[in-house]
Amino acid sequence: MTQAPSLPVFPRSTRAQMTGFSSTAAVLQAADKLRAQGVQVIDLGVGEPDFPTPEHIKAAGKQALDENFTKYTTSAGIVPLRQAVCDYINGNFGSDYTLEQCCIVLGGKQGIFNAVMSLINPGDDVLIENPGWVSFPEIVHFAEANPVRINTEATDFHLTADMVKAAITPKSKLIIINSPSNPTGRVIAPAEYRKIIETAAEHDMWVISDECYLQFVYAPAQVNSAAALPPELRARVLVAGSLSKTYAMTGWRIGFTLGPREWVAEVLKIQSQSATQAASIAQKAAIAALTQSQDPVKQMLAEYQRRADWFIPALNEIPGIACSRPEGAFYAFPNVKELARNCGYATSKELSHALLHKYGLVTTDGAAFGAEGYLRLSFANSMEALQAAIERLRQLVNDHRR
Ligand SMILES: Cc1ncc(COP(=O)(O)O)c(C=O)c1O
């Protein structure tokens, strides 16, 4: 019998070993499997708008194709788009960003990734909110650095400057702030936001402001950007912006970074040696998004508000669920500790698993974001889907009554 040749073991880098796959991807795969078996799955797991990209933005993309705008562009992005980004942010927040302070990237995530890689050395500490977006700790791990988590559960997920101050270590170099927050929906009020940046500055730290959900804010919370800070504070902050959610353009992969010249130059250097540039066609579409009618954004926001107005009270009527009103983004983040207990599940992960496999309802377990006992439910979904989700949750409660 011939022996099978021994295959080489792939020698993963330390960086690759330290970085995990998206912990939410497994749920999505399981949901796809159920769908393939014909199960009517209600999916509140996805983190993207359920609206199509607005027509005038798609038209600009099509026109770019027809005009053969299909070649390499400069790595930082075409000048009219960088100008549109500067005009949009400067116009809304009174800043004075110039073209050299703006780099177009392939979505907000790539902007954050490049910004972390250009600042952070192995062994540095990076402050992040907990719960917080799943990619923050993994990007920090990829830099062979340590995420230092600031737990916000005790303040119902409101981050304060005092909490930041208490978390700072001698090795802290960066804090990543995400307001409005995925998954909590919290929005940091402008005065507190400024105090947080001042605290970071006092400790010679740098800041990434992830403003992916910038425009999706529900009154009385206010739309706010790091761009509104005074210049001496802004000089420590890199704004990671994104068109993905604002304009329902998740697949187009357009984001931007605005910040101190030296930092943006490093972000650009990494981009020029990796992705090269954002897609030429998508850049043209992005100009239309930023410079033409903002009505679609207002309409989407009004619709999210309408859904939240119905969905959050409906969630709170279910015994064992307690859900605060989101101030921004499009996620409900209910506390389901009592519900899980009442139904005999030890963790929110078990509850989420049961909701998927027994009730065909996709949710994201809060533990994926660092908060056991919570679920993230996206209301970027039709009212019918939200109503069906509530029905399935009621069914779960009924099934465990006897
Ligand atoms: C908090 C947060 N930041 C950044 C992103 C990245 O968005 P994109 O890379 O699609 O612009 C997301 C996407 O889910 C997010 O939730």
Would you summarize the structure shown here?
By secondary structure, the chain is of the alpha/beta class. It is built from 15 helices and 12 strands. Helix 7 (161-167) runs parallel beside helix 8 (190-202).
Protein architecture, described:
This protein has two domains: 14-52 and 296-399, Aspartate Aminotransferase, domain 1 (Alpha-Beta Complex), CATH 3.90.1150.10; 55-291, Type I PLP-dependent aspartate aminotransferase-like (Major domain) (Aspartate Aminotransferase, domain 2), CATH 3.40.640. The protein starts with 13 loop residues before the first helix and ends with a helix. The mean pLDDT is 96. Helix 5 packs across helix 10. The chain is of the alpha/beta class. The chain has helices at residues 14-18, 25-36, 55-66, 79-93, 108-119, 135-142, 161-167, 190-202, 231-234, 261-272, 280-291, 295-316, 337-342, 348-359, 383-399; strands at 42-43, 102-105, 125-130, 146-151, 172-178, 206-210, 237-242, 255-258, 331-332, 361-362, 364-365, 375-378. The protein contains 15 helices and twelve strands. Bound molecules: pyridoxal-5'-phosphate.
